[in-house]
Batch of 3 targets.
Target 1
Amino acid sequence: MSNKIKDIGYYIQGNIRYKIFYSKFAFLLSNTIREQIQARINSMNLECFEQGSCIKCGCNTTHLQMCNKPCEGDCYPRMLNKQEWINIKKNSFNTKSNNSRQIWSLDVKNLKFIKWI
């Protein structure tokens, strides 16, 4: 699948989750997804947050934080599945992105991602 098609899918996913997240139907999103969205918002580059779009890709924030795609600016990893989310809340998480291994942990108190490598 080409990157352009994937990006369209991420765009649609982020917009749908955005509408649900900020509605009375937020309960339709799993706790795992809701918690990760909040951690991604907390972890994002402040400049991106303030201008309302990513300085790397130009996507609207916070729509971008709600799709499964990792941040191109290394603010947070791809969206984790339930078991991975449980594990990162306890320890750290290894992920492979763009042919390089990255190690992430989570500051549970501040619900913020930390990239180690």
Target 2
Amino acid sequence: MPTYEYECRQCGHRFEAYHPATELVEACEQCSGEVRRVFHPVGIIFKGSGFHATDYAPKDGNESRSKSDHGEKSDDKKEASPE
């Protein structure tokens, strides 16, 4: 069963409740006022190869090519032109 955090709308008291997802807490432990569930952001960690290359790659098309691509294309032009 998960643990949920609640906050009272009247007195501001925060508390945790351990219960199934199908049940709800309707009253504050201290003042019996109305409560709301507090949501927290979920941490995300990207692991593995490729995330840096795809997320932080240069946006300019000329810079995104590798040096070997530039070398191969310039060699192709040299071979095609007669000397």
Target 3
Amino acid sequence: MPQVVVPRWWRMVLSAVRDVARDALLAGGAPRDLIMGREVRDLDIFVPAATSLPDVGRALTHLGYTYAHSAPGSATEDIIDQRVYTHSTEKPVNVISALAAPEYRLRRHFDFGLCQAAFDGRRVITTRAFRIDASQEQFTLLQCHSLSLLTQSLVRYKKLRVKYPTFPLVLPADLPVDLQ
């Protein structure tokens, strides 16, 4: 995998959030797209559930971000709150509060292998599933624990096809969901 240079601004944003939530992790789409050479739309920063989101908002305000809105819905049942912050010249930041610890969440809750990428403030983290999907140019569905989560993953895949039009969806032969 090529050497990835994380933009300085991302480092500053994550550092500000980590001043409030030590275990915060910039994960998912932004690191994936940076590694894969695609345009980044926004930054998703995952924080532990016990994190004070108003404190995170104040930390982001010092960087010129303003609170835009709470984001409806969630990809998984463990997401407690999601707040969106915008900036006049930088990418929006989504702060996502979840029950699972951010690094555990990266490895156990992200549905596609190609989405299991993160930046922890020091290094870019990718899982084995990410590296396989990146090398095979595919999206492997790793997990879905219910029919509703499978449906959400299929909707996400349809959106991801805009950036990755040639990447097929790979479903496991033993898909762990009762589709009856």
